[in-house]
User: What shape does this take?
Amino acid sequence: MADRFFPNDLPPFMEETTLEEATSSQTPIPHSLTSLLSLPYTTLTSKLQVSALHLKQSVVNETWGSSGNRVKDYTLYTGVLGTAYLVFKAYQVTKNVDDLNLCLKIVKACDSASENSSRVTFICGRAGVCALGAVIAKHAGDERLLDYYVRQFKEIELPCDLPYEVLYGRAGYLWACSFLNKHIGKDTIPSTHMRPIVDEVITSGRKLAHKGRCPLMYEWHGKKYWGAAHGLAGIMNVLMDMELKPDEVEDVKGTLRYLIKNRFSSGNYPSSEGSESDRLVHWCHGAPGVTLTLVKAAEVFGDKEFLQAAEEAGEVVWKRGLLKRVGICHGVSGNTYVFLSLYRLTGNKEYLYRAKGFSCFLLDRAQKLIAEGKMHGGDRPYSLFEGLGGMAYTFLDMIDPQVARFPGYEL
Ligand SMILES: [Zn+2]
Assistant: This one.
């Protein structure tokens, strides 16, 4: 088990120095982990921003610069839409119009590349292209382009054999609808458009759960997954943003209670129903993705049990979440969002410290550890979900924790 993650030897908590203390110090601060952790917050985030913008440039050069408009992988997950998502985040921080124009170009190329794609979700399909395209067009003040992307979005057809999960299924399409309604305006995608899909998700979940102990259940490739990417945690996360009937709300709550009740004794969550392998502490499988869902449940339902379970899952991430990978799907960057999310929910500054701990670990050590072969750079090393793109994105999200959101998962 221990070889999947680095032991967490970060100090349990460190107060930040004030700006005066930091600037009055005569000796230059060495670039080490504990020194980083004691910096005033804005000083630290300035360093994270410098690193992020540098990384962003490498990501653009590697994924877009050389290939120009020939897009092989258009997705947010491992493709150039992920690059656009990162560049758009950089634009929101720096307001550099060149970044916004680059986003428009990349999304346009993704639009052509995904035209005949049967993938429909935000993270791995065409909904992500059209939804992000609309939001970027809005920021660019281009009404015509905004209308175009919203129209393209509405023309997406869901194949009948589509699964239900976030990465490749109906939940991943519904999340894109919520994303548009949040960023473009209420009812951009009306609930009448989403309702039939919600019905399918609920009906199918009840059918597979038939007489089971969990009210809703789904299958993907023969497995009943629990996690955020392919399973229950992800589907419940999306359903909580839908207008649900009272009995549907009870089924969502019941499903979350089932997960909590049947988690491992370590506090971690199995990747699928019946699995006894307590190994994965990822957003995609395990406690991190479940934590984000439980934070959402605590916000939406206000029940203390979800808040408590979210905090308990967060403990697992703190202990076992310094993974030997950088990305946001199954790496340290993604696990950092667990603490940002718990911080926003509770206001407890220890969670912000933990988010700092993980991001400072990345800033201080990731590239060195990758170069030494002690950390895996990701199968797609510059991508948003598996590689350095995700690390840069996380650094930029550290600047203002109140607006930080796990890409494609937190609204
Ligand atoms: Zn993953």
The chain is about 55% helix and 0% strand. Residues 282, 284, 329-330 surround zinc ion (CB under 6 Å).
